[in-house]
Specification:
This protein is mainly alpha-helical and 464 residues long. It has three domains: 100 residues, Fumarase C, Chain B, domain 1 (Orthogonal Bundle); 227 residues, Fumarase/aspartase (Central domain) (Fumarase C, Chain A, domain 2); 67 residues, Fumarase/aspartase (C-terminal domain) (Ribonucleotide Reductase Protein R1, domain 1). The protein is 62% helix and 5% strand. Strands 1-2 form a two-stranded antiparallel ribbon. The radius of gyration is 31 Å and the shape is elongated.
Length: 464
C-alpha cells in the first residue's frame, strides 16, 4: 500500500492498489512539472505579500521548489504513483524538504485551480510553438511558390482536369489554409491566457489573496470571472483540440496530394529519400510513408477532440474527476500535430516538382474548354448556350479522337458561326499560357495575381 495521502484526514482506509493505479495521472501529467513549480512560486510570493505566510517561509518554499526542479531535470526525482499526480508529487517532496513551510503552500489553493493554471501555462507555450511551426511550413511553401511561379499545372475538380493554373497558385492555396489555422490558434490563445488561480476548489476563498498579483506574475492577461465556471470548464482545451484537428485535416489533404502526385501515373513530384521508405520484399519500391502517416495520424486528432467532447457533455457543475481525462488527448494532439508540422516542413522544402510533366498534363483533358466558352461569351453568346456548344465540341473530339488544336476551321464553324481564326491561337501550343494570362479576377491564377500573392506572403512571412 502507498503512504498516507495529503488528503487522508477524513479517511480510515488506504486506497486500493488497483484504484490507485486506475486514478493516477503522474505517468502523463509529470510533463507539467515546470508550470506547476512556477505557479507554486507565484502563489507563495502572493501568500507572503498577503501576510498569510512569513517571508522566511516563502524563501524556504521557493528554495525547496528550486531543488525539486533540479532533481526532476537531473533525473533523480522519484515520481510515485501513490502520490497520484504531479501536484501532489511535488508538494509531498516539498514537505519533506521544508516541513511546516511546505504544508502551508496549499493555503487558498485547490488542485482544481492548480491543475488549470498548469495546463493553461503549458498551452500558452504549446500554442506559440505550433504557430511558429505553421509559419515555418508556410515559408517552405512560399519558397517553392517562388521557384515554380512561371510553371503551369492542371487544376482539378473531382480529381478530373479542370483548368490550367500556375504551380505557385496551387502551392499558395496551402499558405492561405495554414494562415487560417494560425488565426484559430491565436484566437484560442486569448481565451487560454486567463488565470484560474484563486478559484480554489469551486467557491473561492475567505483568505485575503490577490489574484491579480499571481496572474501578473505568471504572465496572464486577466483572471477568470466565475470560480464555478473556472474549475469546471474545459472549452479552452476543446478549442485547441478542434484547432489541431482542423490543422490536421489540412495537412492530411496535403499528404494525400503528395501520395497521388508521386504515383507513376502522375509523376508530378519526387519526394526526398529522407521522407520515404522501401519495401521489405519489393526492391524497386519508394513509398511516401511520411505523407501516409500524416494522413493517418489525423484520425487521432479527430478522435481526441471527440473523446473530450464526449467526456464533458453530461457533467454537472462544478468539478468532476472525469475532467482528469482532458490531459491525455490534449498532450497527444499537441505532440502529434507538432511532429506532423515538422515532417511536412522537411518534405516540402526538399521535394522536386516535375514541371515538364505538369505542363504536359495541363495541356490535356480539354482543360481549355472553359476558356472557349468565355470566348463565345465575348462574342455575345449567352453563357449557357456557350457551355452547350463547347460541350458538343468536346463530345465530337472524343468521338474523332482529336484534341482542340487538331480541329480545322470548318469543324469549328460547324458548331457556331462566331468562331473565328483566333480560336486556333487560343488552343495552340501556347494555349495554356494564354489561359492563365487571360484571368483578370483578384485572387486568380494569372501571372500578375500570382506575383501579387507572392509579394503579399513575403511581406507577412518574410522574404526568403
Amino acid at each position: 500500500m502507498g503512504q498516507k495521502k495529503l488528503w487522508a484526514g477524513r479517511f480510515t482506509q488506504q486506497t486500493d492498489e488497483a484504484a490507485e493505479r486506475f486514478s493516477s495521472s503522474i505517468q502523463y501529467d509529470k510533463r507539467l512539472y515546470l508550470y506547476d513549480i512556477e505557479g507554486s512560486m507565484a502563489h507563495a510570493v502572493m501568500l507572503a505579500s498577503a501576510g498569510i505566510i512569513s517571508d522566511s517561509e516563502k524563501e524556504r518554499i521557493i528554495n525547496g521548489l528550486e531543488q525539486i526542479k533540479n532533481e526532476i531535470e537531473s533525473g533523480t526525482f522519484e515520481f510515485r504513483v501513490d502520490r497520484e499526480d504531479i501536484h501532489m508529487n511535488i508538494e509531498a517532496r516539498l514537505i519533506e524538504l521544508t516541513g511546516d513551510a511546505g504544508e502551508k503552500l496549499h493555503t487558498a489553493r485547490s488542485r482544481n485551480d492548480q491543475v488549470l493554471t498548469d495546463v493553461r501555462l503549458y498551452l500558452l507555450d504549446a500554442v506559440d510553438n505550433i504557430i511558429c511551426q505553421i509559419t515555418a511550413l508556410q515559408q517552405a511553401f512560399l519558397h517553392k511558390a517562388v521557384q515554380y511561379k512561371n510553371d503551369i499545372m492542371p487544376g482539378f475538380t473531382h480529381m478530373q482536369h479542370a483548368q490550367p493554373v500556375i504551380v505557385a497558385h496551387h502551392l499558395m492555396a496551402y499558405i492561405s489554409m495554414l494562415e487560417r489555422d494560425k488565426e484559430r490558434f491565436s484566437g484560442a490563445r486569448a481565451r487560454i491566457n486567463i488565470s484560474p488561480l484563486g478559484a480554489c476548489a469551486m467557491a473561492g476563498t475567505a483568505l485575503p489573496i490577490d489574484r491579480q498579483m499571481t496572474a501578473h506574475a505568471l504572465g496572464f492577461d486577466a483572471v477568470s470571472r466565475n470560480s464555478i465556471d473556472t474549475v469546471s470548464s474545459r472549452d479552452f482545451i476543446i478549442e485547441v483540440l478542434s484547432d489541431c484537428a482542423i490543422l490536421g485535416s489540412h495537412l492530411s489533404r496535403l499528404a494525400e496530394e503528395l501520395v497521388i502526385w508521386m504515383t507513376p501515373q502522375f509523376r508530378f513530384v519526387a519526394l526526398s529519400d529522407a521522407y520515404c521508405t522501401g519495401s521489405s520484399i519489393m526492391p524497386q519500391k519508394k513509398n511516401p510513408d511520411m505523407a501516409e502517416l500524416i494522413r493517418g495520424k489525423t484520425g487521432r486528432l479527430n478522435g481526441n477532440l471527440i473523446a473530450l467532447l464526449t467526456t464533458v457533455k453530461g457533467l454537472p457543475l462544478s468539478y468532476n474527476r472525469d475532467l482528469q481525462e482532458d490531459k491525455e488527448p490534449l498532450f497527444d494532439s499537441i505532440d502529434t500535430v507538432t511532429a506532423m508540422l515538422t515532417v511536412a516542413q522537411g518534405m516540402i522544402r526538399t521535394m522536386h516538382l516535375n514541371k515538364e510533366r505538369m505542363r504536359a498534363c495541363a495541356d490535356s483533358g480539354f482543360s481549355l474548354a472553359t476558356d472557349i466558352a468565355d470566348y463565345l461569351v465575348g462574342k455575345h453568346i449567352p453563357f449557357r448556350k456557350a457551355h452547350e456548344i463547347v460541350g458538343a465540341v468536346v463530345a465530337y473530339c472524343i468521338e474523332k479522337n482529336k484534341d482542340f488544336a487538331a480541329l480545322d476551321m470548318n469543324e469549328w464553324k460547324s458548331f457556331s458561326d462566331v468562331f473565328g481564326s483566333d480560336i486556333k491561337d487560343m488552343v495552340g501550343a501556347d494555349g495554356i499560357d494564354r489561359s492563365v494570362a487571360a484571368k483578370k479576377s483578384e485572387g486568380s491564377t494569372s501571372p500578375a495575381e500570382v506575383e501579387r500573392q507572392i509579394n503579399h506572403w513575403e511581406t507577412i512571412l518574410g522574404v526568403l
